Every structure is written in C-alpha cells, then in structure tokens.
Amino acid sequence: MTAYLLHEGTSILCPHGGTGVVAPAAVPVRVGGRPVLLADATVTIAGCAFTVAGAPQPCVRVRWQAPAARVTVNGIAVLLSTSVGLCVNGPGAPQGTAQLSGYQTRVSGQ
C-alpha cells in the first residue's frame, strides 16, 4: 500500500493532547521544503496530561514502528502516513498511538 512521506511539519499528537516536537535533523531529502522524517527521528511529547490513579504518567516520546519498506535516506527508512508512532512514558511503557495530521500529500512511498 502506498502512503505519504512525513516531514518535519507533520503535526504529531499523543492520545492525551500532548504535542510532539521533532528534533531537527540533518536530512538531505526534503518534501514541501521540509526535511523528511526518518525511522530514527527523535520526537518528544510536551503537555501530556495522562494520569494513572491520580499520579502523572505523561507521554514523553514517540517510538516509531512500520516505516517505509522501500524508501530510505542514507540507509534509514523514511516514515510514512501509515507508520505507527507509539507514545511512551518515561520508563518506556506504551500509552497509545500518536495521531498524525498536516503531512504533505504529493510524495508517496511504500
């Protein structure tokens, strides 16, 4: 299945309303004037309000799964609109899937 390449302008939200912030990377390939996101992209979550039994357990980063199988940049798979971003807390426990929006819709890959 073909999907769209994600770029640094993609909006990433955790399921609890936190906002994903992409760490800038020196990626030589751009779409829509912005660097594409690679499978090793560092995305931190700010403003997550998730609690368990009244104790804060915020999402703090995104762990990516299902990157492109056929499109790479410098040997690293690109992220697609169908890639799965697991939002995890400090110890690394998954707390839900990131919601993606605002990605470009001209360049696709598999």
From TrEMBL:
Protein name (record): Uncharacterized protein
The species this protein was found in: Dactylosporangium roseum
